Amino acid sequence: MGRSHIQGLVSPGGPENPIWSLVKKYDVKNHFTNLSSLLTYDPHGPVDYLAKLDDFEEAYASVEYDAGVILSENLQDRSFRSGLNLAGWKPQGDPQAQAIEWYEMDYEYAQTPVSVFFSQELTSTTIPPTGLV
Predict the structure, then answer these.
(1) Strand ranges (E), 1-133
(2) How far apart are CA 83 and CA 72, in angstroms?
(3) Does the pTM exceed 0.85?
(4) pLDDT, tens digit, for every residue of 71-81?
């Protein structure tokens, strides 16, 4: 079932999501994903590089803030990749950082940072900074 959830199960007075109907029909099971209990590996086995996950999340927060400014001030749109680079996240040449970026971007957007633009993907989650409406 992908991300372990199905959006839009049923609308009041409307039809049931056909995917949800199939899940019930075939008794499909899923498992809770504990995002606070991650293990990281490299080609030689287990290696703890979760600090890079924290670094990515700091850059991500900066990108979201910048997206709010860009959208509220009607500035030139940019790719998530550009935003990450401006926030100091540059995973080129670092396989661990690239794995962290893939994990985060694929989970959240199912796209690469080059394919995600502020106006397309962040508008529903970005709150403009205070005073910029």
Answers:
(1) 41-42, 45-46
(2) 16
(3) no
(4) 888 889 889 99
